[in-house]
Amino acid sequence: MLEGLRDRLRELAADPEVRAVVLTGAGERAFAAGADIKEMQAKGVREARAWSELGHEVARLLETMPKPTIAAMNGLAFGGGCELALACDIRYAVAGARLGQPEVNIGVIPGWGGTQRLARVVGLGVAKELILTGRPLDADEALRRGLVSAVFPPDELLPKTLELARSLAAKAPLALAAAKEATNRALQGELAAALDEEAATFGELFGTEDQHEGMTAFVEKREPRFRGR
């Protein structure tokens, strides 16, 4: 299943017709309730490392593909499920959702990026408390902690998520990709180097058709028609 998700995300990342990606769970109970512990129990060191690396590959696709990724968390999101959501650019949750990194309770740590991305989202102190205790958060606490951007009733979660996706899909693809890449650098490396990259990218976008169309449409008081060029 994880390999299938990886392959599908690769296709979506490369498809110029796809402007935004929504990740959600099937059914009404869970976004992703975590791995099958009975299956994981039999893994050795090498198999566990390979499993972690596969999860990292999927998460990196969500985090770095040149288009927005949105997690519609429609229920439980524990372990790897929470980690996949953390790799998305924006997270919405259903009221009643429960999230967390409970791996310490079974003698391991988050293995798909949770130790790194959770700290970047909610801050180091909160991330340590959640990972060291393994306790779950409900949707309201996740909202207060900044782990999700909004909480919706069950019948509104997917419509609201798709509304956001369509709004993003209408924006300039090159600008979205550049903004995502630049923001991903915000907590990495030297500030001066990141600001230099930002200035260079800002300038480069002035050589695109989308920049000309966007500013022309603004001046002419009409909706822009972006083509990703």
Span of the ends, CA to CA: 35 Å
Helical fraction: 55-70%
The helix count comes to 11
Question: What is the percentage of strand-forming residues?
Answer: 5-15%
Tell me what the structure shows.
- With 229 residues, the protein is of the alpha/beta class.
- Helix content is 55%, strand content 12%.
- It has helices at 2-14, 37-41, 45-64, 80-87, 114-122, 124-133, 139-145, 154-169, 173-184, 191-205, 209-219, and strands at 21-24, 30-32, 69-73, 76-78, 90-94, 98-100, 137-138, 150-152.
Explain the layout of strands and helices:
Blueprint: H1 2-14, E1 21-24, E2 30-32, H2 37-41, H3 45-64, E3 69-73, E4 76-78, H4 80-87, E5 90-94, E6 98-100, H5 114-122, H6 124-133, E7 137-138, H7 139-145, E8 150-152, H8 154-169, H9 173-184, H10 191-205, H11 209-219
Parallel strand pairs: 1-3, 2-4, 3-5, 4-6, 5-8
Antiparallel strand pairs: 6-7
Helix pairs in contact: 1-3, 3-4, 4-5, 5-6, 9-10
Keywords:
229 residues; alpha/beta; four-stranded parallel sheet
Brief synopsis:
The protein is α/β, with parallel strands linked by helices. The chain has helices at 2-14, 37-41, 45-64, 80-87, 114-122, 124-133, 139-145, 154-169, 173-184, 191-205, 209-219; strands spanning 21-24, 30-32, 69-73, 76-78, 90-94, 98-100, 137-138, 150-152. It starts with a helix and ends in a 10-residue tail after the last helix.
